[in-house]
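HUMAN: Now follow token order:
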Amino acid sequence: MQQHATGAELTERRAGSDAVGQTGQVIRLARIACSAVMIATYSQSSPDAWAADPVMMLLLAHFALAIAGTLAVRRLWWLDPLLAPAETLLDFLAVSVALYATDALLGPFFVFGVPLFMSALLRWGWREAVIVATAFIAVYAAGGWIDWQQRGLAALDYGRLLARTGGFTVTVLVATWIGKHPRVIALSSPRIPPNDSDRTRTLLLELRRLAGAETVTLATVHDRSAVTIRSTDPAMDGMTAGFAPEQLLAITRRFLFQLDPPRKVIDRGWLFGRGALSRRVGAYEVLASLHARQALVVPISVQDVRGIVVVARRNGMSTDMLDLAPWIASQVSAAFLDDLRFRSVRREALMEARLRAAQDVHDTVVQDLAGTVFRLQALKSWITAGREAGSEIDRLSEDVRSAQTRVRDYIGRLRAPDDSTAPCDLLAEVEAASEMSSRTWGIACRTIGPPEPVPAPAWLGQELAMVVSEAASNAARHGEASELAFRLTVEAGEIELTIEDNGRGFPEVPGASAAPWSLNRRVLALGGTLTLHSSGRTRIVVNIPFEGQSDQA
């Protein structure tokens, strides 16, 4: 319940970042501002600029188209990759005409080459930016050559020519070096509690918050089997997929899409191809089944799990969301690996607990039942021989009730909080187990130990008691012993429990360990060792590390 409350809180902490990846719109707004400045600058440099001047007409047309493009892409986001190259070419044409219509070397229009270059760098990358910058410098140099042809060599202002081209080149080189790194939008890391019971849903809620999305859906296929769907939308979370796993596995590239009308923008990675527009949306059934009208699709692959993450937005769609894909893929992959490790650790802990419980049941319940059967067989012999069995039946009933109490206590310890650090007396635990084993198996058991109590954690006392019970069971059932002795010795840093009986010992099996597996496993789990001496009589020595009181028997 605690984790689910945390997940509910995450749904309310929306980042409101609907503007993640809005470079295209920023460039268009800057284009409108630069176009207005160019019109104002040209009107001041040319007295007849408003008298049917073709250059002014071109600049006004550029201004109008800049406004129209901004409004169109704001309404139809998928037009951005289609309009971007044409808009850049129109910018280049407008700046070039303004340069040639005025004094190319001395005029103010050279400065507009900087936003032209920066827009290409921000929108596409350093390669496209270098191409635009090189073309602009070539146009500017050509303008200087034309001035040289018209005015003569002496009229050229070489200082300004070199200053402008040199400064612009340095700016291009620095910006290109900075922009050469891969374009990746990195948001804050998702906050996933270490002991979260539903880590996948918490991750999706965090992605929704960080990306400012309407819904985030994860569809995965494990070993090409059935599709698993998790979503921040409760109506979709865990729903049955309406498509085959092969259809999901066919999606291998990141893209943006909208279903009505069908449009898809892929990141093709070519020159001036930040996004390529297509009127065909692949895997239409997959996307329609995930109830996303328009969204970013990110393929993921983690070990033997493959699938897609669908980040759906109602508003704020843009081609720059493609830059969000690597970050989303890395976060989902990391969360998947963490979840796999978490599940693996939990599975190992569960298996260890199950083995531990199985061993405890074997050494308590099974041994008690075996002892009861042993005594019932003896009781049958008594009755057959005509001996009085009433008192033995009473003792047997009392011992069965005691065994029932021990089982209830064991179940209670499993259900209750861990109290294993509570103190106990090791010698008392060994004596109680020895006495119970004597009654259960009908053999003489005696315990020898230190004169003073041996304080230790309760869990260690329980473990030693089970070692005593298991050893007595083996001696009576398999060794046919009639006497059994337990000697407890506590020395610095170690407990030694010596078990001796007068039975026939363990059989020698070549290449195998004669030590009883249940005893050996329990001692090894305590970090101790078990040594078996079996030559006529059986002698078992158990040594266990102990950081308690040091007493010598």
Q: What stands out?
A: The radius of gyration is 42 Å. Confidence is low (pLDDT under 50) at residues 1-21, 549-553.
